[in-house]
Specification:
The complex is a heterodimer of chains A (111) and B (113).
Chain A: E1 3-6, E2 11-14, E3 19-26, E4 32-38, E5 45-51, E6 56-59, E7 62-67, E8 72-77, E9 86-93, E10 99-101, E11 105-110
Parallel strand pairs in A: 2-11
Antiparallel strand pairs in A: 1-3, 3-8, 4-5, 4-9, 6-7, 7-8, 9-10, 9-11
Chain B: E1 4-6, E2 10-13, E3 19-25, E4 31-38, E5 42-49, E6 56-57, E7 64-70, E8 73-78, E9 87-94, E10 103-104, E11 108-112
Parallel strand pairs in B: 2-11
Antiparallel strand pairs in B: 1-3, 3-8, 4-5, 4-9, 5-6, 7-8, 9-10, 9-11
Classes of the chains: A mainly beta (111), B mainly beta (113).
Amino acid sequence: SQKIEQNSEALNIQEGKTATLTCNYTNYSPAYLQWYRQDPGRGPVFLLLIRENEKEKRKERLKVTFDTTLKQSLFHITASQPADSATYLCALEDSGYALNFGKGTSLLVTP
Amino acid sequence: DVKVTQSSRYLVKRTGEKVFLECVQDMDHENMFWYRQDPGLGLRLIYFSYDVKMKEKGDIPEGYSVSREKKERFSLILESASTNQTSMYLCASSSRRGAYGYTFGSGTRLTVV
């Protein structure tokens, strides 16, 4: 069966450090992978999309890598700030039209 | 600002009631989706629609139906609400195959008592 796995343990880091979140998947052949941010009680917000032929993508302090051989994506936030504290979701599309989401990793950035 | 608007932020309904959750998007997106989110289970797809009057079952369609009579509006219907349908319901829309990301609404926290 298809699975998207994200580290269920919360990630606690100090302000200014780089946060790295992992997304592993099985039984997908995705054309692209997406990352979302979700704050408590709110809907997810789209951050980045990376295509299968892209190894790396950057947007401001965010960087995403995509290794289709390892079936893994890494999501980095550099120079992290307390405002980056949230849950981050990885998402892949199945053979239809809808995204499947991982359960997310909670990030806490402390001053 | 483009947006997806869900009709209610919080809703309390009684067991057995028919419940309508409404979602409207102003981005002229072809695709619309309903998810529910529960602690420890993540986001689960209930139904989606890629065109007016079209609908596809997601992973957990039992106990739900949907309606899409206009491109901008996608309604989720709980035919006979049950306590196990207490959840956060999230509507989303996307253009084409979602190659540009989904836009989510703020969610409806439904409690069935």
